[in-house]
């Protein structure tokens, strides 16, 4: 024991009579880094807990039937009451339209990259730009739809315009997720199908895609959760309304993120409260999709994996 | 330099799997001890318990005693880091640090131990590379990456790296299995040279190699799938390969199984 | 699309002539390949269209601009004559993102190390998930939290930094406030933590076991093992990760827009209220913008697009170089 704890930092360690122990300085450094690494983790947890906690405590106050059933039509900033029904409806419609447009494009792009593209120039270009697309600031997606759809084509603000902007943000995420899943499908399965004389496209549609389906659904749900919280592009494309507008193709529509933005911009406490509750509902929706994605991934795992 | 290892009642586990059971043996200093046996018999696992590398794998643990002269490697208060400095190791596949030069690879362990002076480092690096029979081949390109060497050279670089910190014991886990015959010969020559200074333990699949390089040989075996590996017998290499005491050893040596 | 080609071929398969069925297979193949390739090309087209339409819509406003677009600190595109420049926006964007990067990178790498090498294995997975949850929180919620929860706390921090480090020009100034670039960069740092740490974690996962064991067998402590085997291996991956984080921070809109209080002009005292970024300015000024105003915002968005494009491409290139190296 005595020899084991004896500091032996002088070197070389040659011919030292005992096992010795690591020098105090090295041990200290090791400890120090360990503490720093633990602190780093704590630093990440503190804001997470703080965000979730404040949203929960501040948001619960107005999480009532009125909030979920009524719009802000005719409700002033100082007034109590009012709700986000119009915003929840808008968000769900916009996200649904976004998925309908983005998922087929993204899945087909991924199919192209994995099944057909090989290492060709087009495939590499597409793959590269999908990566670049992941990094497009969301506000730029909004500006693009503004420049193309509203200013050039002359359409008005609408939920659909918002969906177009969200589509640009959703495509790369779904492409990447689908790509990963398709790569996991064992090649034997494809070869077995070819060996039976099944044409390639049928192999992809009826063998490869179904095998990867749960993974793709998981990826899509995560992507939906992601775009659901986007605010910036919506400000430029759906604009604002306090009233219920169930038609996503005509006129300004509300969405939960823009609802929060609007309410938070008003200094009255009643509005701030509504903003918190809006944030709570938004987070709950996002968590729901996240959880759903995980459940799908867990319970509908294909047998082959 | 060079210490005697005495193992008694050693068990090793991977999670719930009992990998080796109740091993006791003495490993003599300044000699080469070879571990032979069929795949999965626990010889590599046992080797890794001798410098506490076994416990690096999550969920792995060890019971029993490993005495290095008069100190228990698994005694209370023993730092595994200190153990590994005294008991060096060479792995199956050469694993020089890919981002480092040849020089830095050899000096890595020294720098950890606080050797900073350039002239001292230069001396030990040269000495170690000479000790590993590599100096003449690399002396003109010490600042080139170690990954640029051939497989055999890389393995000798790893040996140089291990002996640079002047350990008491050198463990080698199938050091030639990834090498061609000529490189294998070079490493075997090196082992013969190093045994005058170190206690060397080598795991090998190759019985000719065990016969060529070792003074003593230990044969490990498993009773069946899912059973822990055990030491069948240990003795002078000449005796193990000519007149083993156990039938299982004889069958393995003569190639009847394994 | 798939269903309707599926229907066609099903009909064809029923045809008694075998050759016909085979040829339909080939036709189906052709249609399907075109659809797949078309989608890929559409992605490229979208990227091109973004550039083209932003430029096209920006030009009229730029022609009406009477100030220097690149160097002017003014932003008054709605006035007559229109005068606007991006100097202040670029300043706010670059400074807040770099500060955020400076704060986030060490912490994020620390988190990645914690989860890969320090945390007990049974909890490492759930803890990693916890950090990923940070990424699931939408930016509008960070904005709300930053404005109403963090900013009041930042007032004290800012005054402390101002009194302690006021001799550094960046931390100088007379009125440290809470709606400053500094506060915005703290929010941004929190938001980019998960992306940097999750990519770093992925890189650490790929460090070959042989290198880790080589270091440990030499008698390295855990930290020394990380320094010898993990960090050199993961270096370009970590650089790429933080550059992606930088791109993310530069493009972040809502959280920054909510936290900052607009004060015109470049202010090097980052603890004082004021400052704005490309993205925040677009969100804040859009509702009141005239036609020229919108064009000006589109022009500034174009600059942001180009900057983030460069940062992201560079980041990808760094990460790709690592792949070749390994």
Oligomer: heterotrimer
Q: What is the fourth-level CATH superfamily of the largest domain in chain A?
A: MetI-like
What characteristic shape of chain A results from the CA principal axes? globular
Radius of gyration from the alpha-carbon trace of chain C, in angstroms: 26 Å
Supply the number of helical segments of chain A. Answer: 12
Q: How many DSSP-defined strands of chain A?
A: 0
Q: Which architecture of the largest domain in chain C does the CATH hierarchy give at level 2?
A: Orthogonal Bundle
CATH superfamily of the largest domain in chain C: MetI-like
Structural class of chain A: mainly alpha
Low-confidence stretches of chain C: 1-23
**In CATH terms, what is the architecture of the largest domain in chain A?**
Orthogonal Bundle
Instruction: Please give the alpha-carbon distance between the first and last residues of chain A.
Output: 51 Å
List keywords for this structure.
heterotrimer; A: 305 residues; mainly alpha; MetI-like fold; 2 domains; 12 helices; B: 258 residues; alpha/beta; Rossmann fold; six-stranded mixed β-sheet; four-stranded antiparallel β-sheet; 10 helices; 35% helix; 26% strand; globular
Describe this structure in words.
The complex is a heterotrimer of chains A (305), B (258) and C (326). Chain A is built from twelve helices and no strands. Chain A has helices at residues 2-5, 24-60, 65-69, 85-116, 121-134, 138-152, 159-184, 187-195, 200-228, 232-237, 256-264, 269-299. Residues 1-17 of chain A have low confidence and may be disordered. Chain B has one domain (5-253): Rossmann fold, CATH 3.40.50.300. In chain B, strands 6-7-8-3-9-10 form a six-stranded mixed β-sheet, with helices on both faces. Chain B has a four-stranded antiparallel β-sheet with strand order 2-1-4-5, with helices on one face. In chain B, strand 1 (5-14) and strand 2 (17-27) form a beta hairpin. In chain B, helix 4 crosses helix 6 (151-164) and helix 6 (151-164) packs parallel to helix 7 (181-194). The model of chain B has no long low-confidence stretch (mean pLDDT 91). Chain C has 326 residues and is an all-alpha fold. Chain C has two domains: 2-64; 75-325, MetI-like (MetI-like fold, Orthogonal Bundle), CATH 1.10.3720. In chain C, strand 1 and strand 2 (83-84) form a beta hairpin. In chain C, helix 4 (121-136) crosses helix 6. Chains in contact: A-B, A-C, B-C. Chains A and C meet through helix 2, helix 4, helix 5, helix 6 and helix 7 of A and helix 1, helix 2, helix 3, helix 4 and helix 5 of C.
